[in-house]
């Protein structure tokens, strides 16, 4: 029997002041043990959704269940098992990493030994007396995640944690998130507008655009959709005639030449054979998969 999702929202909708609706019927399902990438352009409703999950905004319509409990009636119990990083927490620049964690330790009810544990988890246990204002942006972000880890959460919610990081910082962050999931069994919900980065770490993906969910499912399912949209790029001696010959392959003429849908390499050979038997010279046959970044653009542009 499949375990129930850690997060489930049903018909979640939200209006800001003056009747501006920002979320429309969001049905989010985050499986237990997953790394769920919540993707969308800036302003698509990601932060609003995460804020609702944490009770930072009042739910206006729909239902939120976390750990199988309704958020409205069980917020305190749910949040005791949840760590989060929404925007940037207040870090004290004149204090060390350890001293910053000590400031928040009592709030989370964490032990002193937990400080050593989380510093080790995020790779900041060797910073000693170095004050935070001398940290790199990547180190500050890891310290922010360490704060979220103080209560030893089962669920970790991160809102755009890669914002502003250089490539080295993004690689460090990616490794940390994978390690938290693999070694500590955390379910992780991470929002981002960077599909190319997210796809390297997640097991599941939800795509939101203008407050509406366009896709939700395992990463492999999205990759399957990507393969379905793969096309074969062709250049022939008469592309218009090639369109007539290959009309059942949904031909499209563009600046690069002619493209058609195809299923596998055997079909590529059959397409080539039909064109030559039709008296055409074939100058180019180039299978061209739609990468996930392009698929993301396609999905959002279809709903623009």
From TrEMBL:
The keyword DNA-binding does not apply. The keyword Aminoacyl-tRNA synthetase does not apply. GO terms for molecular function: ATP binding. Keywords: ATP-binding, Nucleotide-binding, Transport. Gene3D superfamilies: P-loop containing nucleotide triphosphate hydrolases (3.40.50.300). InterPro entries: AAA+_ATPase, ABC_transporter-like_ATP-bd, ABC_transporter-like_CS, P-loop_NTPase. Transmembrane segments: none annotated. PROSITE patterns: ABC_TRANSPORTER_1, ABC_TRANSPORTER_2. It comes from the Bacteria. Pfam families: ABC_tran. Residues 7-235 form the ABC transporter domain. Belongs to the ABC transporter superfamily. This is ABC transporter ATP-binding protein. It comes from Flaviaesturariibacter amylovorans.
């Amino acid at each position: 029997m499949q375990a129930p999702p850690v997060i489930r929202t049903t018909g979640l909708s939200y209006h800001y002041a003056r009747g501006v609706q920002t979320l429309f019927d969001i049905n989010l399902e985050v499986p237990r043990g997953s790394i769920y990438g919540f993707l969308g352009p800036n302003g698509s409703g990601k932060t609003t959704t995460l804020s609702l999950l944490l009770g930072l905004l009042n739910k206006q319509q729909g239902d939120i269940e976390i750990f199988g409990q309704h958020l409205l009636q069980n917020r305190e119990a749910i949040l005791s098992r949840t760590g989060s990083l929404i925007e940037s927490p207040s870090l004290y620049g004149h204090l060390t990493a350890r001293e910053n964690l000590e400031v928040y330790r009592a709030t989370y009810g964490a032990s002193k030994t937990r400080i050593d544990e989380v510093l080790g988890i995020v790779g900041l246990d060797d910073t000693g007396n170095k004050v935070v204002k001398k940290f790199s942006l990547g180190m500050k972000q890891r310290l922010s995640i360490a704060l979220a880890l103080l209560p030893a959460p089962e669920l970790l919610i991160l809102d755009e944690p890669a914002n502003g990081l250089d490539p080295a910082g993004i690689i460090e962050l990616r490794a940390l998130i994978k390690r938290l999931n693999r070694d500590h069994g955390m379910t992780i919900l991470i929002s981002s507008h960077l599909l190319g980065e997210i796809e390297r770490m997640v097991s599941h993906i939800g795509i939101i655009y203008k407050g509406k969910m366009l896709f939700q499912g395992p990463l492999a399912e999205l990759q399957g959709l990507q393969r379905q949209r793969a096309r074969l790029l062709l250049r022939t001696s008469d592309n218009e005639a090639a369109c007539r010959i290959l009309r059942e392959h949904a031909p499209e003429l563009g600046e690069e030449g002619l493209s058609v849908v195809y299923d596998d390499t055997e079909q590529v050979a059959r397409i080539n054979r039909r064109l030559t038997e039709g008296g055409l010279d074939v100058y180019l046959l180039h299978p061209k998969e739609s990468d996930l970044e392009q698929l993301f653009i396609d999905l959002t542009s279809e709903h623009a």
